[in-house]
Amino acid sequence: MTIVYDASINERTKRKAATAPAAKKAPAAKKTPAPKVEVPEYTPGLAKEMAPLYARVAKVIPSVEWPFFAPYIYEINRLKKQKNAVILAHNYMTPEIFHGVADIAGDSLQLAIEATKVEEQVIVQCGVHFMAETSKLLNPHKTVIIPDALAGCSLASSITGADVRAMRAAYPGVPVVTYVNTTAEVKAETDICCTSSNALKVIESLNAPRVMCIPDEYLARNVQAQTEVEIIAYKGACEVHERFTPQELRNYRETDPGISIIAHPECPPDVVAEADFSGSTSAMINWVKDTQPAKVMMVTECSMSDNVAVENPNVEFIRPCNLCPHMKRITLPKILASLHTMQDEVTIDPAIAARARLPIERMIALNT
Ligand code: 13P
Ligand code: SF4
């Protein structure tokens, strides 16, 4: 049975810990207005050059939108070469980013692993802030930029380093596995990180009877269903995935008995129980590629279905649309502006970075 950490203990310890220097919350990101950046005109020549790409994505990008996107895609791809930059994009990016400008796309684990291999001096992280922080932790001497530093995550903002210290005090000696969807300050208090694709493997690798798996309560509960290890969870949740309900999934099945339903493990366990498969964003993509269902519903963020639909023309996608407002902060105009200005650059206090790097490296060592 999963134990969910009592937040009232947490609050008491938080008050005590509030005087410790590391208990301070990360400073709020400063936002400067995006500069006006020149983009080429959508001329017949540019339209012709971009036509092969449009042919690939026409199914998911309306033709009225393409004349707006195409010049940005053209210019970003030109400028990233000039600036020796690589674009890492999460699977939730919109199709014009995912198919148009990303050099490497993937789930959180793949992006973390790929970040250790890039040769370019500049990494543009098209995803949310914790992903850019992970890239920076793994590439301290590179410039890591995020097109909008306010792209946060409800899981990352649900917990602080002081909360982790309070949990350690409540459960002495119990190892702490932290989801990568957390700030560097939280990772610094952690034994090892995990992602949705390796949480079970990471927890079992510790050979401990009890493990804390924080901060996503639903991920912890979903892993608990697969292991004998006793899991202590924290009350954090993804604001996108917690909104799905098992009744919603049952309604889709009733209307359409032949439908395949696959769900991300950040969904509540009763939602995952209704699904035919559950896995990380990339595991879900691979499931569709390998299984080729006639009709599938991906119970996760909206843009994923669009991105996968491009590569699976014979699969019909039913889209129960829940958008991640943080991922959607990343747009082509902001990516272009960030390449021009090299902003917002991700920086991490070196003392925190030195400690936060270790649990990510331990996780990667287990997966490579
Ligand atoms: P993945 O690691 O499965 O890509 O998940 C990241 C995420 O933020 C899902 O909401
Ligand atoms: Fe965070 Fe959920 Fe958005 Fe993923 S989908 S970045 S977990 S808020």
Which descriptors would you attach to this protein?
368 residues, alpha/beta, Rossmann fold, 3 domains, five-stranded parallel beta sheet, four-stranded parallel beta sheet, 42% helix, binds 1,3-dihydroxyacetonephosphate, binds iron/sulfur cluster
Question: What can you see in these coordinates?
Answer:
With 368 residues, the chain is an alpha/beta fold. The chain has 3 domains: 3-14 and 155-240, Rossmann fold (3-Layer(aba) Sandwich); 44-151 and 328-341, Rossmann fold (3-Layer(aba) Sandwich); 242-323, NadA-like (Rossmann fold). It has 16 helices and 13 strands. It has helices at 7-17, 44-57, 66-82, 95-98, 108-115, 129-138, 161-170, 184-187, 199-205, 217-224, 246-255, 269-272, 281-291, 302-311, 332-341, 350-367, and strands at 3-4, 85-90, 104-106, 122-126, 143-145, 176-179, 192-194, 210-214, 230-233, 260-263, 277-278, 295-299, 316-318. The strands form 3 sheets. The protein has a 5-stranded parallel sheet with strand order 1-9-8-6-7. α1 (7-17) crosses α7, α3 (66-82) runs parallel beside α15 (332-341) and α5 (108-115) packs parallel to α6 (129-138). Mean pLDDT is 93; it is low at 12-29. The site of iron/sulfur cluster has 13 residues, from loops.
Structural class comes to: alpha/beta
Rg is: 21 Å
CATH superfamily of the largest domain: NadA-like
Shape: globular
CATH topology heading of the largest domain: Rossmann fold
- The H-and-E topology, N to C, reads as EHHHEHEHEHEHEHEHEHEHEHEHEHEHH
What's the total helix number?
A: 16
Biggest β-sheet: strands ordered side by side in the sheet: 1-9-8-6-7
What is the average per-residue confidence, as pLDDT, rounded to a whole number? 93
CATH architecture of the largest domain: 3-Layer(aba) Sandwich
Helix content: 40-55%
How many domain modules? 3
Bound molecules: 1,3-dihydroxyacetonephosphate, iron/sulfur cluster
Distance between the termini: 31 Å
**Biggest β-sheet strands, sense, barrel:** 5 strands, parallel
* pLDDT < 50 stretches: 12-29
- In percent terms, what proportion of residues is strand? 5-15%
The overall strand count is 13
CATH class of the largest domain: Alpha Beta
